[in-house]
Amino acid sequence: MIVVLSGGVGGARLCAGLMQVFAPDEMLIVVNNGDDFDHWGLRVCPDLDTVMYTLSGRVDEQQGWGVRQETWQVLEAVVAAGGEGWFRIGDGDLATHLIRTEQLRAGRSLSSVTQALMHTHGIRHQVVPSTDDHHRSLVLTDAGLLDFQTYFVRRRCEPRLLGLQMDSRAADGGPARPAQAWAAAMMRQVDAVLVCPSNPILSIQPMLTLLGVRDWLRRRSFPVLAVSPFIGGGAIKGPAAKIFGECGLETSVRGLAGWYEGLVDGWLVDSNDAEEVRTLAGLGFQARVANTWLDSDERRRGVAGALKEWLRDGVALAPGREGGRIAVDRT
Ligand code: FO1
Questions:
Q1: Pairing relationship of beta strands 224-227 and 230-231 according to DSSP bridges
Q2: C-alpha span between 112 and 180 (Å, rounded)
Q3: Ligand 1 center to 201 CA (angstroms)
Q4: Nearest ligand 1 atom to alpha carbon 35
Q5: Is 38 helix (H, G, I), strand (E, B) or coil?
Q6: What is the pTM of this model?
Q7: CA Rg, the chain, in Å?
Q8: Spatial contact of 31 and 14, defined as CB atoms under 8 Å apart
Q9: From CA 243, how far away is CA 235, in angstroms rounded?
Q10: What is the pLDDT of residues 293-317, one digit of tens each?
Q11: What is the Cα–Cα distance from 309 to 76, expressed in whole angstroms?
Q12: How far is residue 300's CA from residue 253's CA, in Å, rounded to a whole number?
């Protein structure tokens, strides 16, 4: 079983490639839901929906999120009636939030609702939220503590990021736990973990803070491969480079390798960053090069194929994890 850790746009695009090279029973896609929030009284799960629309071919490719050929009549009517219009929910997308909210209110878990939504979108691979517990990303900025979408969409990531905090708890008051399907995979034989080229701080970090996840990764006997979200010192999409800079981290694969120290064994880097391979090797990491622009089906399949081939060739486990030694704690 391959466990894939994904955020929104970049992660969804890699998953679309992975779906072509791994069978449904070979892969579990775990999606960040720290970005989830309630808007217009509805539960919105942006990363899960981006993955769903991308895998089903419904996504607005240009935007990266939302559905293609969307209409905006409800948004216009809500704004005309004095409601909030800064978070753009289209008419087609709205159906997803209506169904999800209704079913959550009826007592179903987010995992169960997600499974049904993926099924109706014709997706056979298993896609699960990282957790069914309350788990919300809060962004500490120079403009105060902001909920995720206020920071990301309303304020366009303009405030300086000082840190990420999770507002997180299980129903019993304990720490939030990985969703049942992910927890079950952790207990069984995992062949590898793949980390998507998603924002390491905003999208991947929330999943790593769930109960037991970091320990599971640190004590692993399976390899972890990651695809770099940087190309030539900039992010492929989104604010990852700006945020890395604000956190005092180098916007390079070397910076990423430090951030994920002890958690990632091998890096797939873009051909523009081929010179980083030697730097990474000097730090004890393996690296391979591919064209990591995920802008077409062919390229997505290409990157997915390169990861599969690497796993087949074998990956040595990186320094900082042998014997379960703890390298860096960022939670
Ligand atoms: N991103 C935006 O930049 N502006 C929006 O108005 C917006 C609306 C939106 C609606 C539904 C949805 O599923 C995603 C949406 N996104 C929007 C994307 C999303 O907020 C972010 O890309 C993620 O949360 C970060 O991964």
A1: unpaired
A2: 10
A3: 17
A4: 24
A5: strand
A6: 0.95
A7: 19
A8: no
A9: 10
A10: 999 999 999 999 999 999 999 998 8
A11: 48
A12: 20
Q: What is the dihedral of CA 140, 146, 147, 153, to 10 degrees?
A: -110
Tokens 């622009």 correspond to 293
**Ligand 1 centroid to residue 65 C-alpha, Å:** 6
Atom 12 of ligand 1, nearest CA residue: 46
Q: Is 88 in the pocket of ligand 1 (CB under 6 A)?
A: yes
Residue among 59, 182, 49 nearest 117 (CA): 49
Tell me how far apart the alpha carbons of residues 6 and 19 are, in angstroms, rounded to a whole number.
Answer: 13
Structural contact between residues 30 and 3, judged by C-beta atoms closer than 8 angstroms: yes
Cα distance between residue 112 and residue 95, in whole Å: 17
With a 6 Å cutoff on the Cβ, whether 87 touches ligand 1 is yes
Does the CA dihedral 1-229-55-184 come out positive or negative?
positive
Q: What tokens does 240 get? A: 């990852």
Burial (CB < 10 A; 0-12, 13-18, 19+), residue 207, is buried
Cα separation, 268 vs 18, whole angstroms: 14
Least confident of 75-79, 205-209, 254-258, 304-308: 254-258
Upper half-sphere CA count for residue 118 (Cβ side, 13 Å) = 22
Cβ atoms of 257 and 328 within 8 Å: the answer is no
In this predicted model, what pLDDT tens digit does every residue of 117-139 receive, in sequence order? 999 999 999 999 999 999 999 99
